[in-house]
C-alpha cells in the first residue's frame, strides 16, 4: 500500500486500490447501487400511494419519514455491530434487513394498510442504514486514505446508477397503469417479492466472499493536507470539529435531497402538465444527472480539492432552486433536473471529509454521519405542506440546506 513519508520527505503517489481488494470492491460497490434503487423507488411509491391509498402530499411524505427515520434509529446499532463483528457481517445484516422489509410488503398490500407499509419501509430502511454505515468506511479501507475521496465517489456513481433504475422500474410497474380511484396494490406486492428475492440471493453470494485482512487507512496514514497538523492524543470524537460539521452538513444535504426527490413527479405533473408516468420517466433522466455529476465530480477532484468543489456545487444548487421557484416552464424544469447534477458529489464528499484522520473513531463516526440522514425523514413534511398550495414554492426551503453545505465546504471541513 502506498504510504505517506515523514515530513520533509517526498510523498509517494497513492493508488486507487489494490488487486487483492478487487473482488471485495466489486461486491461492496454493488451495495451502493442496491440502496440507490430502494431509496428512489420510495419516491415513486410516494406518488403511487397518493392514488391507491388516497393520501395527501403531506401524508405520503411518511414514505420518506419511515425510510430515513430508520437511518437515525439504526445508525449507532449498525456501527456497534460493525465494530464488534466486522465489515462483512455488517453487510450481511444490512442485506438481511433489506430483504425482510421487502417481503413484508406482501402482508401490507394484502391488508391495504399504509401503517403496515410504513413498518415494512422502516425495516427496509434499517437495512439501508446498515449498508450505508458499513459500506462507506469499508470502501475507504480498500486502499490508501489519500484516494478515499475518489473511491467513495466512484462507488457512489453506482449508487447514482441505482437511483436511475429505481424510478425506471417503479414507473414501469407502479405508475404505467395508474387508474384514478384504483386501490389495487398487486403490482406493489409482486415488485417487492422480486426485490426481496434478489437481495436475499446477493446476501448468500456475499457470504462466500473472502475479504482480505484490512488495515484501516484512517489509522495508518494521514491525509497530505493534514500531515503537519498536531492531532491531540486521546482526542474525543466530539472534539473533532470537522466531524461535527460533517454530521450537520449531511443532515441538511439529505434533507434537501429527499424533499427534492419526493415531489419531483408532482412538479412535473402540476407545473409541466405531464402524466404521472411521463413525469416518472423524466425522473429517470433526473437520476441520470446524478450519475453524470458523480463521474464529472470524481474527475474534477483530480484538479480541484474536494471541499472546494463541494462549495461550488452547493452554490450552483442554490441558484437552481431560485429558478425552479419562479415556475418559468422549461427553464425551471431544466433547473430542477440540474439539481441532481450539483447534488451528486455532496453525500460521498461530506462523508469522506468527515472521516478524515479520525483513527480509531472512524467506525463510530461513520454511524453518526449516517444518522445525519434523518434530515431526509423530516424535510419532506415541511416541503409537503408548502407543496399543498404550490409545489414550486416548496423549493425555496432547500436553499437553506445548500447554504449550510457551502459553509462546510468553504470553511468547516478543516481538520484541527
From TrEMBL:
Swiss-Prot/TrEMBL keywords: Cell membrane, Membrane, Transmembrane, Transmembrane helix
GO molecular function term, any single one: fucose:proton symporter activity
TM helices/strands, residue ranges: 21-41, 61-82, 89-108, 114-140, 152-175, 190-209, 243-267, 279-297, 309-328, 334-355, 367-387, 393-413
Highest taxon in the source lineage: Bacteria
Location(s) in or outside the cell: Cell inner membrane
Topology of the protein relative to the lipid bilayer: Multi-pass membrane protein
Annotated Gene3D superfamilies: MFS general substrate transporter like domains
Gene Ontology cellular-component terms listed: plasma membrane
Family annotation (PROSITE patterns): MFS
All copies of domain Major facilitator superfamily (MFS) profile, residue ranges: 22-416
InterPro entries reported in the protein's UniProt record: Lfuc_symporter_FucP, MFS, MFS_dom, MFS_trans_sf, MFS_TsgA-like
Keyword Membrane found: yes
Protein's UniProt name: L-fucose:H+ symporter permease
Organism of derivation: Dyadobacter frigoris
Lineage, broadest ranks: Bacteria, Pseudomonadati, Bacteroidota, Cytophagia, Cytophagales
Gene name of the record: fucP
